[in-house]
Specification:
Layout lengths: L1 H20 L7 E6 L5 E5 L6 E3 L25 E4 L6 E5 L7 E16 L2 E10 L5 E9 L4 E11 L5 E13 L2 E11 L3 E11 L16 H9 L2
Antiparallel strand pairs: 1-2, 1-3, 4-6, 4-12, 5-6, 5-12, 6-7, 7-8, 8-9, 9-10, 10-11, 11-12
């Protein structure tokens, strides 16, 4: 009952404070929380010594947080993303020998070709260690706040005819002055692979365009593996 009363009081005070905030003829009022009990009070101008002011300035969602925030991912031919050298190592693990694992290089390139209302689509080429590059297609979603979920669909079916889908999750992370995909994924059955990385954008004027880390090939040549499928 006390928790419900606290929530109801907070909502009532918030509504009252919002109503007062639009009336400039009245003195400014603040919402105060008692330091020990947490009881909320609406006070004129300032809180008492045994209270702290409740800051509601960030409670409203920013108008910039909408699906259109990420529309640049698919504009002007789309965007290209790759794994930087520091994040190339992935972990490969065999369930039959659960106490051991080994490291393997995993270069993955995405071409996000289109974007609409928080969803994006494109092609993927991944090369695990010395195995040949493999083409996949991706369908992903990104929330206005930057949460990311991607399904990677392999073109080849498994031995039983089922299509293998790899899932990845993460978020848009602002790192070193630019947006990155901070992603985690796992895939496999008899042999399993786990990998996390800051996926960085690559543009034609950067070194990565002609020389991808770990595979020493350019992005266009690497993605051409999908054209051969």
């Amino acid at each position: 009952m006390r928790t419900g009363r606290f929530i109801f009081t907070f909502i009532a005070l918030f509504i009252a404070a919002a109503a007062i905030g639009v009336d400039d003829s009245k003195a400014a009022q603040v919402i105060c929380s008692h330091k020990k009990t947490g009881v909320l009070k609406l006070r004129p101008e300032q809180c008492k010594e045994n209270e702290i002011q409740v800051d509601l300035s960030n409670i409203a969602e920013s108008p910039d947080l909408s699906p259109a925030r990420w529309s640049w991912l698919g504009e002007d031919g789309g965007t290209y993303w790759y794994v930087p050298p520091i994040n190339l190592p992935a972990v490969i693990w065999n369930p039959s020998d659960p106490m051991n694992y080994s490291s393997v290089s995993d270069q993955t390139v995405w071409h996000i070709e289109s974007y609409a209302d928080g969803y994006f689509f494109g092609t993927v080429v991944a090369q695990l260690g010395a195995t040949p590059p493999a083409c996949q297609y991706l369908i992903g979603s990104v929330t206005p706040e930057g949460g990311v979920y991607i399904a990677f669909n392999q073109l080849a079916s498994s031995s039983d005819g089922s299509v293998v889908i790899t899932a990845g999750s993460g978020k848009m992370a602002f790192k070193d002055g630019e947006w990155t995909f901070l992603m985690q994924m796992s895939t496999g059955s008899s042999i399993q692979v786990a990998h996390w990385a800051y996926m960085l954008e690559c543009t034609p004027d950067e070194e990565c365009w002609e020389n991808l880390p770990g595979v020493q090939r350019g992005i266009e040549e690497f993605l051409a593996n999908c054209e051969a499928e």
